[in-house]
Amino acid sequence: MGAATAHELAQRGYHVLAGVRSSADAEAIREEQVEPVILDITIPEQIDALVARIEADAQGRKLRALVNNAGIAVNAPVETLPLEQWRRQFDVNLFGHIAMTQALLPFLHHSGGRVVNISSVGGKVAMPTYGAYAGAKFALEAVSDALRRELAPHGVQVVVVEPGGVQTSMTGHGIERAKAFVQEMSPIQRRRYGSLMQAIINQATSFTTRGVTAEAAAVVIADATTAPKPRIRYTIGRDAAVMTRLTRLLPDALLDRVSAANLRPHFPKTQPD
Fold first, then answer.
1. Crossing angle of the two packed helices 238-249 and 252-263, in degrees rounded to 10
2. What is the β-pairing status of strands 212-213 and 166-167?
């Protein structure tokens, strides 16, 4: 989704500094208006290098927007997910975005630009096994609200984008990690949560297959980034639009039943060993 957004913004005439994790990723995304930058948002030195790159821009270009879209997902029940995995998800999905925002806000104050935070439908509703991922996204939503209200008097906008099912590699990686994690559970944990984990894996696979393409998602993100008068929040996909509305309309007990009903068809027919 990040790569597709970089190309979409480039097609609209913007010069894009695209954060990548490796030289191979850099060459895959590079084009005339897309300049890859090695960037792990959890490594301060790499953020500092990006700041230096922006400061040294010989063409005098202003930074118009920061799109915070890095993310990882490791799905597991709260009882079983090791604390280091909780910390890793919050480091990437929340604290890294805050670090990037703090580092680049001086440029955005100068340009009257905006921050675009890529949240998730998981920032509005927390499904079983999504505790760590949704927790970080709920927090990102809260930080975005605070930031928007802090920056509004100073001419810097803050926009949140909430994707639902999108055909991205991140979801596929998350599914593989979830499968591996089931094997790492104790026998008692597998008996307790194995069927739930398989249902979540099955649902995520179906969810992603039926999701919008990364290119379609990129159009929404690019609109949120460049619109003269952007909305405060954008959703991507019909599923995200429906779920975000339901969270506002339904009491928690009824939302629990809706969530359980949506998950029920994905449970395996036989119990795991």
1. 150
2. parallel
More confident residue, 209 or 78: 78
78-120 pLDDT, tens digit per residue, is 999 999 999 999 999 999 999 999 999 999 999 999 999 999 9
Nearest to 109, CA basis, from 150, 67, 160, 60: 150
Catalytic residue numbers read 133
Residue found under tokens 């099912």:
165
Do residues 38 and 26 make contact, with C-beta atoms less than 8 angstroms apart?
A: yes
Taking residue 167's Cβ as centre, other Cβ atoms within 10 Å add up to 17
Tokens of 127: 């499904």
Asked if residue 229 lies in contact with residue 18, where contact means CB atoms within 8 angstroms, the answer is: no
- Domain 63-266 coded CATH 3.40.250.10: no
| Rg (the chain; Cα; Å) | 19
Say how many C-beta atoms besides its own lie within 10 A of residue 242's C-beta: 13
Q: How far apart are CA 102 and CA 162, in angstroms?
A: 22
d(CA 146, CA 84): 27
